Amino acid sequence: MAEPRARASSDARTIALLGNPNVGKTSLFNQLTGLRQKVGNYPGVTVERREGRLSAGIGDLSLIDLPGVNSLAARAPDEQVAVDVLAGTQAGVTRPDGVVVVIDASRPRRGLFLTSQVMELGLPTIVCLNMVDEARRDGAIVDAGELEEVLGLPVVGTVGTKVRGVRPLSEALSTGALGMPHEDRLVDVPGIQGLPSPSPERWARLREVVDAGDLADHEATTRYTWVRSVLDRVQSQRNATRGGSDRIDAVLLHPIVGPLAFLAVMGAVFQGVFALADAPIGWIESAVGACGQGVGSVMPDGLFSAFVVDGVIAGVGGVLVFLPQILILFFFIGLLEDSGYMTRAAFLVDRPMRAIGLSGRAFIPLLSSFACAVPGILATRSIEDRRERLITTMVAPLMTCSARLPVYSILIVAFIPQQTVLGFLGLQGLVMLGLYLFGMALGALAAFFIDRALRRAGLQSGILEMAPYRMPGVRSVVIRLWVRGSQFVKSAGTVILLMSIVVWGLMTFPRTEDVGDDPVARAEAQANTAAGRIGKFIEPAIEPLGYDWRIGIGLLGSLAAREVFVSTMNVVYAVEETEDEGATARGVGRAMDRARWDGSDRPVYDLATVLSLLVFYAIALQCLSTVAVVYRETGSVAWTVGQFAGLTALAWLCAWLTYIVAI
Amino acid sequence: MIKPYDIALSDLAAGAGGTVVTLEGDPELRVRLLEFGFCPETRVRVVRRAPFGCPLEVEVGGSRFSLRAEAASSVRIRHG
Prior knowledge:
- The complex is a heterodimer.
- Among the domains of chain A are: 14-240, Rossmann fold; 496-662, no CATH class.
- Chain A is elongated and about 90 Å long.
- Chain A is 59% helix and 7% strand.
- In chain A, the strands form two sheets. Chain A has a seven-stranded mixed β-sheet with strand order 2-3-4-1-5-6-7, with helices on both faces. Chain A has a two-stranded antiparallel sheet with strand order 8-9.
- Chain A is of the alpha/beta class.
- The N and C termini of chain A lie far apart (81 Å).
- Chain A has 29 helices and ten strands.
- Chain B contains two helices and six strands; from the N terminus they run ββαβββαβ.
- In chain B, strands 1-6-2-3-4-5 form a six-stranded antiparallel β-sheet.
- In chain B, strand 3 (43-49) and strand 4 (56-60) form a beta hairpin.
- The longest helix of chain B is centred in the middle third of the chain and has 9 residues, at 27-35.
- At the A-B interface, helix 3, helix 8, helix 14 and strand 10 of A face helix 1 and strand 5 of B.
- Strand 10 of chain A pairs antiparallel with strand 5 of chain B.
């Protein structure tokens, strides 16, 4: 490749990666930085901030992976962040010393459009033609030397999915081979004169003039005219062929086979998150249990030991237990995203999802929420539209997650009669199915209304590029898993741990000494704790739903995790715990059946109370882990609190209506 | 001005194509479409439609996009 025209100083320290979505920029970033990366959010916006250090011993160079953008004209938050970082006006980020524009070598048109914009910002720039191997295979040859000539900027070719393939770029960066854009190479938008030389000021001034004169159409068209003239010089061949990819699409997007294949893929993803995660979750639980026992046996019995074992170790276990589902889900998402199937899946279900104000992109996060809302909400990151991401996050907890199942099954088995309806349908199964459908219907309604309320908060075009299929790179998928997993543990994990310790404290203090293993004494001790007192205190609030204070304790305990309801009930009803889980469960069922309101013979669990409790659990956000993740993902106290309060109020209302109707 | 021989991209059958004449409708959507490369004088082609008829897979400038019918209806094209 030709010698770059201008060299920037070789002490460049921070370099930004800029590119359209789907050009393999993140794979390139992962390849360059390996595990040495930090992922977070830019303050105040839910735009992902990714930074890493360049590997391969190049010295002190850090990379910023900017969000994938279509334009720098800043109509979306992602674009705003990209411009602010490049202009040096993003809080907490110093202006990078240079920028790499990543362009898809097979389809350079949109990338060149973006290049024409970034050149105006006056940063040392290098153009990276990514996936040159695919371009060569598909017959789209871009003459890199000629492109350097036309742009007046250095150009390198890379294969972002291969370790060796990124070497041209890392070498160029290490020698500081970036070029400052020349003023005479910029796109001349007719009618706009007197702009300063390339700099953030020039870009800001240009935007002002364009907005004031309503020239946005004119500007975009002029840039594409320029792109065409550039391509006429550097592209000897026609556009890339998509033979192989077209043959796959003929099947996967076939009017009949396509939806069936979609169902099969989604079924596999769901099964993976739901079932594959089961074994590792069991290992984590028993490892945490063993660890707690080990620590408990060496520490002197007492408050501190209880704090360490039941508070801290159990709390850490409560964080780690999410990892199998998160990692399995993100493994699948990584494969689907990197292979290109994700946009096909979104294409196939876009129309049905639109009925409730969402798009095809929201499908996988909501599907995963049937296993657990925590990985589901983390998965909303693959939704590009900010508003849609928010709506999906808000309704995800209404999907029936697996933590609700123990609660449902204990209530259904104990109180719903085992009879058949219409000759072949089991009533118990019907109630379970009804609860699933109820959650979905409420989720759809909630999405519809939140969408209505947020209308005009920014038009969404819903345009997605359907890039050709591509073999996912193993390294990129693995790095992504590691980053996601460690990020969850570090950010949401700490909040979850803290909250679970608080709940443990409520369930433990004030403590009755020397309870021993006597179930009745344990039940009395439980009633005396803060949670027990709160349970009694809130009894008037939950009595209209048909719950006494003991159920109130169960509701509080559930905040740590919904399934804790069952073990709390074990304690509250003084059930003898045995090794046999089935027997314990039956014991709880019988104890609930015997439960009476204080000072009367009226059974607590009549059918109305049970139905009301089922409805309450179907709706209420009885899961502090979800709250923690929502807070971390939205970065907004208002939305987090609003969601919790809203779902609790809705749960109360629906449970009350159920109770009134059923009684 | 919409000339009588101009039709909307959303009206094309799968496999049919044409040349972009102009964009109309919401200004923000118009600029978005331009940024994706739906410029006047550019060739476009509907590759296929999703089940239920929407969105459309549209090819322009060597790239393919999933485009909702509303967005596609603001792209006026000359058939053929």
